Amino acid sequence: MTRWHLRQAVRKLEAGGVIAYPTEAVYGLGCIPEDFHAVARILALKNRPIEKGLILVAANPDQVAPYVYYPDNGIRQKVERSWPGPVTWLLPATELVPVWIRGDHESVAVRISNHPAVISLSGAAGPLVSTSANPAGCPPATTARKVIFYFGPVLDYCYPGPVGKPGRPTEIRDALTGRVVRI
Predict the structure, then answer these.
(1) 114: Cβ–Cβ under 8 A, 6 or more apart, which residues?
(2) pLDDT tens track for 90-125
(3) Which residues is 171 bridged to in the sheet?
(4) How many CA atoms lie within 13 A of 124 on its CB side?
(5) Which end of the chain is more exposed for a tag (fewer CB within 10 A), N or C?
């Protein structure tokens, strides 16, 4: 991962593009969360319904603070103890979360990543949409080569690098109930 790749990826994001990038477990597709057209492209690439919602990833908790509401300090502490790392939390969404991010939910899924690519990208561009890089029904891509196989020229940029621990996407937990939504 070089500064050149970072500049290229950020340039594409800021221009409304969709990029792929390595995360803790798989490659993700991402864009700027407020960009409806970019999010719509991701949903179309994946054949994913908007109602399901999407994850936001960031370099630090301050980046997601405008999007989440912590009902009490205990919940905040529980969530922040797991970060940075491969745990995505469902938290009550503020009015700043676009409907195309939360889907049919009153919550938003957020993760503070410990992956160097996600930290660099979100550190430079702000929080990003993150959803596994795969069409519906196909296994998530764990290499840049697989991303290109799936999406080829319709992708604006593929940020190169290894995923953390290849395998299943990150765990998702409901912060209010503690329930594991996805392992």
Answers:
(1) 24, 83, 84, 85, 86, 164
(2) 999 999 999 999 999 999 999 999 999 999 999 999
(3) 87
(4) 18
(5) C
pLDDT attached to residue 167: 67
Count Cα neighbours of 72 within 13 Å in the Cβ-side half-sphere: 4
Q: How many CB atoms lie within 10 A of CB 161?
A: 19
Half-sphere exposure of 99 (CA within 13 A, CB side): 2
The per-residue pLDDT for 105 is: 95
Residue whose structure tokens are 């502490």 = 77
pLDDT in tens, 13-65: 999 999 999 999 999 999 999 999 999 999 999 999 999 999 999 999 999 99
**Number of CB atoms found within 10 A of residue 113's CB:** 26
Query: For the chain, how long is the longest CA-to-CA vector?
Result: 46
| pTM, 2 dp | 0.94
Q: How far apart are CA 47 and CA 41, in angstroms?
A: 10
Distance (Å, whole) CA 17 – CA 162 = 22
> Residue 58 corresponds to which tokens in the numbers above?
């960031």
140: DSSP letter? P
